[in-house]
Write a structure and sequence with these properties.
Largest sheet: 6 strands, mixed
Distance between the termini: 48 Å
Oligomer: single chain
Low-confidence stretches: none
Helix content: 10-25%
Number of strands: 12
Mean pLDDT: 88
């Protein structure tokens, strides 16, 4: 196969000089599902691992049971932080009033009360550093970072709350087996059930 034939098979988008914007993310044709925009660059995600999938399922079930009617849990929806940053948290808790038409493609940061990232090998740096800093700067009041525990099945949840003065997250604790928090509302989730089938 020649270099020319390879070039014609894959037409990679050429980024604008100042990077992509929110408008580009939602209008560029043929972008893969779950493409994120971080600092004006398009981020393509790798195939999901089972740990990632099962933890999202576990947390979503727990959130559905715990959230009051004025809050809604959504998975893998774009959140506009600013014109060059549109991440897609694994889970977001949003004001129910922000959930409008069925063709909704994104939420604004002001609508999000909690962003959750389940760390994957290909996104460790983004999930541990880049995204939390950006969520905090955008004013999202709560953040959970979920990692694999020692036995490869057990999730460990790092709970953070926003310090409004510094616009930075404060680590409120690391929770195993049982997740119990008071913000954005009272939530209790049995984390040990992630490996009980």
């Amino acid at each position: 196969m020649t270099a020319e034939s390879i070039e014609h098979r894959h037409q990679w988008p050429v980024p604008p000089q100042d990077g992509y914007t929110v408008d580009d993310l939602f209008t560029l044709p043929n972008l893969p599902s779950h493409t994120e925009l971080i600092d004006g660059s398009l981020i393509f995600v790798s195939p999901q691992r089972y740990f990632h999938f099962s933890v999202i399922e576990l947390l979503m079930k727990g959130l559905y049971r715990a959230l009051p009617p004025e809050l809604e849990a959504v998975r893998e929806m774009a959140v506009v932080l600013d014109r060059q940053n549109v991440p897609e948290p694994d889970i977001s808790v949003v004001h129910a009033s922000a959930v409008g038409a069925m063709d909704l493609t994104r939420f604004e940061a002001k609508d999000v009360l909690l962003a959750v990232e389940v760390v994957s090998p290909d996104s460790e740096s983004r999930d541990r550093t880049t995204k939390p800093q950006k969520y905090a700067a955008a004013g999202i009041p709560n953040f959970w970072r979920v990692e694999q525990g020692g036995n490869d099945r057990e999730p460990v949840v790092h709970v953070y709350e926003l310090d409004p003065l510094t616009k930075a997250y404060v680590h409120m604790g690391m929770q195993r087996e049982q997740l119990k928090v008071g913000k954005p509302c009272a939530i209790e989730i049995d984390l040990a059930s992630s490996h009980k089938r």
